[in-house]
Amino acid sequence: MVIMRLRNARMVDLVTGTAGRPHDIVVSGPRIYRSDVAATGADDDGSEIDLQGRWVMPGLWDAHVHFDLWAMACRWPDAGRADSAAELCARLGGITEQRTDDEPIIAMGAQPWTWPDTLAGAMLDAISATRPIVVVAANLHTAWTNGAARRHWGMDREDLADGVLHEKDAFRLEDRFSVVDETMLDEWVARAQELAASRGIVGVTDMQHGPGRIRTWRRRAARPDQLLRVVIACWGDNLDEAIASGMRTDHPLDEAGWLRGGPLKIISDGSFTAQTAWCSRPYGDPGDGLDPHGAPSITREKLATLMGRAELHGLQTAVHAIGDRAITMALDCFTETGATGSIEHAAVPSPSDISRMAELGLRASVQPVHMLADRGLVEERWPAETDRFFPLRSMLEAGVPLSFGTDAPVAPVDPWLTIQTAVLRALPGQEAWHSREALSIAQALRASTGRIGALVPGGYADLIALDENPFATEPDRLGRTEVFLTMANGRITWWADAAD
Questions:
Q1: pLDDT-flagged residues of the chain (< 70)
Q2: How far apart, in whole angstroms, are the C-alpha atoms of residue 180 and residue 295?
Q3: pLDDT value of position 434
Q4: Are 405 and 205 in contact (CB under 8 A)?
Q5: Of 237, 286, 369, 434, which is the most buried if we count CB atoms within 10 A?
Q6: How far apart are CA 426 and CA 424, in angstroms?
């Protein structure tokens, strides 16, 4: 093993908020040691970086990413830039005119709940009758298609003739258009890892759907440009494959230490902005023939069966549950099966269900940035009950551990925007949305590090060096935090000096 020395580092304790005096950190293989101690047999080749008194803390994690889809979205048209359906269609028309090929156009990140007009499949048909065109909502639970797209991806059913796909149909389409050239996608993923590392991320939980995810990540992790630790989830239709591979939650999946087994991911309801999250109180008229309460995406019996089978084979379960009814059903199944794991999103749990989560030892994997998109709809549909949404502090005070993520490409992979939102509960300059539920900087940071509060001798060399002490940063500037250096698994994955 080669020794590297990080000179003049100020270690930040995320529990106390204090920082020590500058001293040296020794990195040997994937571990850190005191400046006077190194692993036996290590080869000190003199490699060092002078951090010049910068602040060093545990590296950041994104606990919920659809990594391949995010990497693709970084390359495709950004529908989130459009302020209306008409503007988006004009932009897509311009892209079509510039193209000389007949390749599909897929625009990700649309936010139609903010638009003054309504997108329809016929509007995409008017752009092109022959080139497949797809627009995917930022929530991933709704997609709009032209006829060419439905024919191209085998979804030319009569009940989808209007071009609008919801929930399982939208997911099915996303699976199909995500099948791209393997070599090209690996390059896109490598570049996306660089972007994540530049923001201080050392690891992600990859919730990408599809077969062969372990094989795919083993291939990528064998490359010299692997930059992130990856916890690999499986889905119900690939559970047999995961079990046969021997995957177990938190167990290593490669010798180099980049990959670990993750949970079984199950979706139990929809999304607030799609008005399909399963809630006890109605949305009013959600339109498009949708149930006014939202709806479950799985039966209670099937959910319990999958969870019980996962638990039997050493896999935790991550249940996507946004609405209060979905959360209650998920907790009933955790209780019945004895399964362990997390509630993903946990956007509107009842007070009694928050207590149940704590009693069951479950983690809440939450995405604070989502409240920025959901706030308008919640205030419109449930104006008297907005204090029930995103109860981050209530969960933490009840004893429910929090893990922060983005659900990218639903939101950008930007942990500092996540941290800032959890602290402000608004964008800078806006009034806080129920400030009682705001977290302290220390709480938000720990929820972003996999709940690691400090770097310790013998611990993993997953760390970041910052130009500013986050505890001395004004909360409305946290989103602009600059990362000087990121190290994951003992490898430098981002270094601002080298990037300049």
A1: 1-2, 35-46, 286-288, 500
A2: 32
A3: 97
A4: yes
A5: 369
A6: 5
Closest CA to 218 of 190, 256, 164, 182: 256
* pLDDT score at 497: 87
pLDDT at 39: 45
Q: What's the gap between Cα 170 and its chain centre?
A: 19
User: Which sign, positive or negative, has the C-alpha torsion 22, 28, 31, 33?
Assistant: negative
Q: What angle do CA 489, 441, 412 make, to 5 degrees?
A: 60
pLDDT of residue 43: 52
Mapped to the 3 state alphabet, what secondary structure does 94-138 carry? HHHHHCCCCCCEEEEEECHHHCCCCCCHHHHHHHCCCCCEEEEEC
Instruction: Walk me through the domains of the chain, giving residue ranges and CATH numbers.
Output: 1-58+452-500 (2.30.40.10), 61-67+183-451 (3.20.20.140), 76-177 (3.10.310.70)
- pLDDT number for residue 41: 47
d(C-alpha 465, C-alpha 44), whole Å: 22
**What confidence score (pLDDT) does residue 40 get?**
45
**How many Å apart are CA 6 and CA 33, to the nearest integer?**
11
Question: What is the token pair recorded at 34?
Answer: 């005191």
DSSP 471: G
pLDDT given for residue 229 in this prediction: 99
- φ and ψ at residue 69, rounded to 5 degrees: -65, -40
pLDDT number for residue 35 = 66
> In angstroms, how far is the first alpha carbon of the chain from the final one?
29
Closest CA to 134 of 100, 116, 160, 114: 160
Distance, CA of 219 to chain centre: 22
